[in-house]
Input
Amino acid sequence: MNLLELNSEFSGSFWPAGNKAASFFGVLSITFGSTISFRFVGVQPQTIADNSHLHGHLTIDGKVEDCTLLNLTFSETLLSCGGSGVVSCESVVLGRTISPENRYEEATFAFTNQLPFFYQRPDFESIVDLDTHFIDFEIEGDLYSDFIGHKFNISDIKAHAVIHCSNKDALDDLQLEIDRIREKYDDPAMWLAYDKQHSIKIKFSKCKSVSEIYEHTEAIMQLFALIYRIPVFIKTLTVDHQPKLPGMKIIPSVFTRNEVLERAKESVLGRFLTITNSNIDFHAVLSKWLAVRTDHSLVISAIQNNDGAITEDELFGKYALLALQLESINTAIGGVHKTRYQNPVDNYADIQMVQVLNEYVKHAGLSSIGDLVSHLRNAMTHEKSSKKTYNKFSRHQLINLSKLLVSGEFFPISIVFLMGPDACGSTV
Output
């Protein structure tokens, strides 16, 4: 189940935890990018209000599954008093009925554009080795590992179901051959090369609730958003794998614009990735990121909500954000205050990006990128500051400059700073 593709309504019966006799009908509306909503009929709203979560049986593709709706919230404008109403929920658990306080040891997840960071060849779809591993380390007692999985084994399917051929006899012969191989070999694993997904598995040293697990996986996604400079979202999240009990599928409520989701779905294959698994110590970077990520929340917000478009009024906040980020890095490296915007550039900026930005510096008649950031930031945030530098640029130039500095290639300054100046070799 790819969460980004969800756009459906599912009906079923629901009840307050521990009181199945009080079942009522409900419809769950799940569209990734919109708040998950639940319409209920045949029960007084107060019954819902008295419960932070609900249990239920949900019909999905003709199959009835146990489910749990977590952290219900009423919308006052949608609430009715006649035995029906609408609430939103933080997340949906498929596969089991649980309590929000339940805690779990394991989680497996995947997100958009995950594999290219670890495997940079454009033909990565040709990987067929299921034993390929890129992650095997520990952070704060939590064990991280990974694997490349597939949806199904070709030897378990019917040739007629996946292959079109006008010659029915040829398809029959192919099916006979598949059956023969299945009988001849103990484990005839044959996977479709294009149907792969790279997943990360975490075994927590201290068990976490479903909400805490999603928050942890979201932190890792945010690191990749910083690396890629485009939005990154969850594709699958499964919790609590057990030998004889399938893991629970978690569907979080994620609110964002359709344009942002479309950017997240864009493949980074074919793009030059400044930072990949081949040139950083991913273990060290992830460990540091988990400890300091809240210090970079404004930058993450800018990336995760960036739909590729920008209006002139948005420039003000973006340049202020950039200045704050550079000041934060300057403080961390012990740089002097007077050159607080230039010091991070001197230490961490990519030489090619510096060359591009210096054309804007030259156009403004200034001496450095730091001076350019300072002048633009002051012009946009201080009423009495001179607008001379700002007025030298057209609206189009200011937007392009903001994309370079704030929304695009300049963001590696932040991630290279996290890694340390020598993590990727020389950057200046």
Summary: The first helix runs from residue 45 to 49. Residues 3-94 form a domain with the Thrombin, subunit H fold (CATH 2.40.10). The two ends are 43 Å apart (CA to CA). Residues 421-428 have pLDDT under 50 and may be disordered.
